[in-house]
Every structure is written in C-alpha cells, then in structure tokens.
Amino acid sequence: MKTLTTQRRLHGILAVAMLVLMGTWQTTALAASCTQSSTCITIDGKGSGAMSAEEARQSKEQWNETQTLRHKVNTRAEKEFDKADRAVDDEDRCNGSTNVNTYWEPETRKCLDRQTGHRINP
Predict the structure, then answer these.
(1) Tens digit of pLDDT for each residue in 17-55?
(2) Position 100 in a domain
(3) By its UniProt entry, which Pfam families does this protein fall under (predicted)?
(4) Which of 24, 26, 46, 117 is the most exposed place for a label (fewest CB within 10 A)?
C-alpha cells in the first residue's frame, strides 16, 4: 500500500519538475538576444529587411496559434497534476480514518464503505 502512495508522490513530483523545466526554457528563450545564430525579424518599411511584412505577419500568426496550443497543454497538465495531488491527500485521509469500514479504491481514487460500497468523505 505504501509503494502506491510513493509512486503517486513521485509522479506528482515529476509533473511539477516538468512544469518548472518548461517555464525555465520559456524564460530563457524569451531572454535570448538577437545574435547571428538566432532568428530575428526586422522590418525597415522598405521591404529590404530580414523578412517581408507578409512573412513577419505569418510568423506572428503561427506563433500565436502555437502559443494557444501550448497554453491548453499546460492547463491540461496542471489539471491532471491537481487531480493526482488531491487523490493522494484523499488516500491519506481515508487510510488514516478512524472508521474501520473505510477502504481506498485505487482504480476510482475514492474512499468507500466496506459494507455498502458507497463513497465516504472521512
């Protein structure tokens, strides 16, 4: 029983570490200056810049679309992490309950009554 709790906690820690890593990468990417090896967009209004206005617009549009997708992915990851975190707390409360008729059901992540099978909030 303790190994399942340990595995869930490690899963939660891993999820948090991934979110921190993604945030660190994002900060580093935004802080990068315009160097020879990086991609920079400059428009001087005469069409002789690094990219034309149309290419810059398309690049910005693509960035905005992927930003929305990244936000959705991050939101989903946060929801999954919160769900797993709540389940660990609920399991600890269920296993520590003074009610001897309670047991933790790992598949449904619920604390149930041994006699009726109904959900219990310890």
Answers:
(1) 777 777 776 665 555 555 556 566 655 555 455 668 888
(2) yes
(3) DUF1283
(4) 46
What are φ and ψ of residue 24, in 5° steps? -65, -45
121: containing domain: 82-122
- Domains of the chain: total: 1
Q: 103 has which bridge partners?
A: 112
- Both tokens of residue 111? 């604390």
| Domain-located, residue 103 | yes
Question: Is residue 105 one of the residues assigned to a domain?
Answer: yes
* Residue 111 buriedness (CB in 10 A; 0-12 / 13-18 / 19+): buried
**CA 22 – CA 68 distance, rounded (Å):** 15
Q: Which residue has the tokens 């549009």?
A: 61
Closest CA to 112 of 85, 94, 92: 94
